[in-house]
TrEMBL record:
Pfam families from the UniProt entry: PCMT
Name under which the protein is recorded: Protein-L-isoaspartate O-methyltransferase
Role: Catalyzes the methyl esterification of L-isoaspartyl residues in peptides and proteins that result from spontaneous decomposition of normal L-aspartyl and L-asparaginyl residues. It plays a role in the repair and/or degradation of damaged proteins.
Record key words, sorted: Cytoplasm, Methyltransferase, S-adenosyl-L-methionine, Transferase
InterPro entries, per database record: PCMT, SAM-dependent_MTases_sf
Enzyme Commission (EC) number: 2.1.1.77
Gene3D superfamilies: Vaccinia Virus protein VP39
One GO CC annotation: cytoplasm
C-alpha cells in the first residue's frame, strides 16, 4: 500500500501555503503539488525533510529540485490538461508526477540508467499511467514523438539546446535554465516555423545537462 498519511497531507498543505507566500499563483500547479507524495521520491533518510522547500540528493550525483523551483518552472510552461509535453531530466520523477497530476501526457528522458529504472517502478506504482519514460540523451529530444506543446528542461544547459527548439509546436514554449554554474531561467516561444521569442526569469542553479547516456 502507498504510505501517504494525513500527516503527510497536512505537511503538503503547509508547503502549498509557503509556495503561495513565495508568489506561486497558479492554482493548477498548487493543486498538483498538494496531491503528489514528495516523500516517496526521496531516500528514506530524508523523508522528514520532504516538505521543506529545499533540494536533495537522489543518487547518481543528482538532485530533486526544490518545490518552489518545480512550481515556478511548471507555471512558466503554461500547460493545459491533455497537452503533450517533453521533460528532459526525469531525475527522481517528482516533476514528472506533478505534470502527470495536471493531466499532461508526459514524455520524460533521463540519461542516468539508475534513475531511469527507479522511475520505471515508482511512477506506475503511484498510478501515473500517462508518463512515458525514456533512457536517452535529452539534447536529442524525441523526434519520433515531436512536436510537443511544451518542453521543460530540468538540468542547466550551457546553451539553448537547438534540436529541442525544432520539436516545439508553433505557439509552444520551452523552459530551460541556461548557463554553466549559475543559470538564467529562460522561456522560448516558437512564433512560427523560423522565429522564436525569448524571455528571462532570473537566476537559478541546476545540476548540469550532460551529453550521452550513463549506463
Ligand atoms: N526533474 C527532476 C530534476 C532532476 S535533476 C526531478 O524532479 O527530480 C536533473 C536531471 O537531469 C538529472 O537526473 C540528470 O541525470 C538529468 N540529465 C542531465 N543531462 C541530461 C541529458 N542530456 N538528457 C537527459 N537527462 C539529463
Amino acid at each position: 500500500m502507498i504510505n501517504d498519511t494525513f500527516r503527510h497531507k497536512g505537511l503538503r498543505s503547509r508547503l502549498v501555503d509557503e509556495l503561495r507566500g513565495k508568489g506561486v499563483g497558479s492554482e493548477a500547479v498548487l493543486r498538483a503539488i498538494h496531491a503528489v507524495p514528495r516523500h516517496l521520491f526521496l531516500d528514506s533518510s530524508f523523508v522528514k525533510m520532504a516538505y521543506k522547500d529545499i533540494a536533495f540528493p537522489i543518487g547518481a550525483g543528482q538532485t530533486i529540485s526544490q518545490p518552489s523551483t518545480v512550481a515556478r518552472q511548471t507555471q512558466l510552461l503554461e500547460v493545459l490538461p491533455g497537452q503533450k509535453v517533453l521533460e528532459v531530466g526525469t531525475g527522481s520523477g517528482y516533476q514528472a508526477a506533478v505534470l502527470g497530476e495536471m493531466g499532461i501526457e508526459l514524455y520524460s528522458i533521463e540519461r542516468q540508467s539508475e534513475l531511469y529504472k527507479k522511475c520505471c517502478q515508482m511512477l506506475p506504482y503511484l498510478g501515473y499511467s500517462k508518463i512515458h519514460l525514456f533512457l536517452g540523451d535529452g539534447y536529442e529530444g524525441l523526434p519520433d514523438i515531436a512536436p510537443f506543446d511544451a518542453i521543460l528542461v530540468t538540468a542547466g544547459a550551457e546553451e539553448i539546446p537547438a534540436k529541442l527548439l525544432l520539436q516545439l509546436k508553433v505557439g509552444g514554449v520551452m523552459v530551460v535554465p541556461v548557463g554553466s554554474k549559475i543559470q538564467i531561467m529562460t522561456r522560448i516561444r516558437r512564433l512560427n516555423e523560423e522565429e522564436f521569442e525569448q524571455e528571462e526569469f532570473g537566476e537559478c542553479a541546476f545540476v548540469p545537462m550532460l551529453n550521452g547516456i550513463n549506463q
